Amino acid sequence: MEKRGPIFEKIYHDYLRQMQSLDFREISRRLNLTLEGEELIVPFFHRTYRVSKQGIVVEEGDAPIYAECVVLAKYILLTPKEPPPCFSQWWTFKDFRDAAPFAGAFHNNVEKAIARNFSVRIKELEMACRAMGGMVPDDMSLSYELVQRFHALPTMDMLLVFNDVDEEFPAEARVLFPDNASHYLDMECLAISGWLLADYLYLQAGGTHYTIM
Question: 40 near 52, Cβ under 8 Å?
């Protein structure tokens, strides 16, 4: 993990400590993950990570940043004991019951950031989405200029909808989650996942740095 100071290191190692008692074989079954030896193979957006009780690493490329480690650790630690309800509809972040403490930051760091970064750059946004594995849903008709679905995690997709700036309105972005997403991640990690998506798209389109930790 990229070093971010003693507080972050302490939290990260606390997550690893909590994992020690987990049955990774059972978790792999519940989350539809591959288990190789003592490592869970977890696809997260456009990269693959190896999660073990000793640490989290990227299968190829740079070391994971702290935010990625948080989401992946909590994804494993919060594995549902019973099958969650099936996905039935897309929700905005603020639709979730416990989202209120994070809703303002989510709007600013995710939706407003995507709108700002890609205003009058919808073609660049489309290319960034494709590089991230984004797909146009074939079972949906929404009145947005761009609609992209991402396989964020094996049990959770995310949806980006975007309208570019025009004569009357500024650019607008919305990031949506399946209505059962809170069974897999808590609100903080859902917010982090959205922020990571915004950063990944920004970096794919020529950005130079993460804005999240």
Answer: yes
Q: What whole-number distance in Å separates Cα of residue 125 and Cα of residue 202?
A: 8
Structure pTM?
0.95
Share of the chain above pLDDT 90, in %: 90
Rg (CA), the chain: 17
Q: What is the mean pLDDT of residues 150-175?
A: 97
Beta bridge partners of 164: none
Q: Going by C-beta distance under 8 Å and a sequence separation of 6 or more, which residues neighbour residue 204?
A: 127, 128, 131, 132
Element (H, E) at 39: strand 39-44
Q: Are strands 156-163 and 172-178 parallel, antiparallel or unpaired?
A: antiparallel
**Measuring CA to CA, which residue among 178, 153, 159, 190 is closest to residue 90?**
178
Contact call for residues 129 and 148 (beta carbons, < 8 A): yes
What is the length of the chain? 213
